[in-house]
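User: Second chain of the day. Same drill as before.
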Amino acid sequence: MIDSHCHLADETFAPDLEAVVSRAKAAGLARTLVVLEAGNAKEIVQAERIARLWPEVQMSIGVHPHVAHRFRDDPDEAATVVRAQLSATPAARAVGEIGLDYHYDFSPPDVQRAVFRSQLRLARELGWPVVIHTREADDDTLEILREEGSGAMRGVLHCFTGAAALADAGLELGFYISVAGIVTFPKAADLRETIRRVPLDRLLVETDSPFLAPVPFRGKRNEPAYVGRVIETLAGLHATDPVEIARRTAANFHSLFGP
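Assistant: Same format as last time:
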C-alpha cells in the first residue's frame, strides 16, 4: 500500500513520529508521499527526521493557496522558493500541494491564481507532476490547468470531494483522482457514486493525515496506517479485492511519481 498524500511533517506528529512510522510499516505501507509547505523551517527539520526513519518516502513541495498572500507583491517568488527547496530535498518528486481555495479568505483569489500559475510553470519547466488542491474554485482551477498545462501537465486532484463533472474534467486532462477518508463517511454517498466511475488505472489513495480520519477513526488524528480503510471502501465500490486495489493504486503512484 502507498499513502499518496500525508502531512507527516506537521508538528502534531513530532512527539511520536517514530511510532507513527512504525504503525504505517506494520500496516503494510511501502511508502508515502509527504507534502511539505515551501519555506516552512519546522517542516524541513521534521522532513529530515522522516527521511531517516523511512528512507523510502517521497516528498512534494509547494505553496498552498492559504499562504499565497505571502507572495502578494511577487507571485513568481513562490516558484523561486519552491525550486530552491526541491533542489535541496533528494526525496522530492512533485510540486504541491498547490491550487485554489475560495472557501476560506486567507489569501485573495487573484493572488492565489497568480501564485498557482507561477508554480505550474515551474512544474512544466522541470517536467514534474503537480499535486492539486481545489475547493469551491473548480472552474478557475480547471481553466488555469488547461492554460498553463500546454497539454503536458501531469498530476493528481488530491483529496477528491468534487462532483462527477470535476472528475471527468480531471480525467480528460490526464490527471489522477486521489481518494481520502471522506469516502468512508456515511453522508458521502454522492462522492462514492462519483468515485465508482473513475477507472482503476486513474485512482490513488491517501489519508491527508493528520486530517480527515476515516471511519471508524473519525474524530481522532489521522495517520498513514489508516489508508487501508480507504482501500477497503474502494474495493467495495469497484467490486474487487482490497489487495487488488492496493496493487493498482501503488502502480498508479509509481507511474505518476516514479519508483
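The longest strand covers residues 92-101.

User: Great, on to the next one.
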